Amino acid sequence: MDGTRSWSEVAFGRAELEQARADLPWDNAADVILGGLTVGGRIDRLDLRGDGVAARVTDYKTGALPRTTSAGALAGGSELQRVIYSAAAMRRLSEVRQVVSRLVYLRDGPSAQTLSGDELDGALGEADRFVAAAAGMLLNGSAPVGPEAYEPYNDLRLALPADLESYRRRKVQALEVAAGELSVLWGST
Predict the structure, then answer these.
(1) What is the pTM of this model?
(2) Assuming Cys at both sites, which of 3, 18, 34, 176 could form a disulfide with 11, CB separation 3.0 to 4.6 Å?
(3) Domain tally, the chain
């Protein structure tokens, strides 16, 4: 639309790491709160409609579009990044009423997956809930592994026992109890 402005590499919640940029639509040092925690990052691309009531955040991925997509907007926690970006846009741009969040996979030609409207609102509420639960667990000294810890590509898998499948079978119930509310999120993968 006419008057749309675009920015790349838009920082938020990063006062100590970023110099202020006069061209940004917000103060990059201002806090963005999610689940009671201050979060920060850098949005690959932000588009703001000329009337200021709609924004689009884009996260570019160099890989191919996943063959299967996970259930739920947060995809078991693996899609938290774009939900955080959406939270930044909604909470830092006071006039914005609509945000579209998209992942653009660049391999094999651009392919986008979007999140907006009620689905995005639900994802923001879910993210608030799960981030707060994870922070509470960490403050209480508990940090159970998530489902991706068992994936062959996970470099941190070496911290788990060598007989991983036997360990997983023996510990599955204890890990679910320790994960508490997070096991609901992880179960949605």
Answers:
(1) 0.77
(2) 18
(3) 2
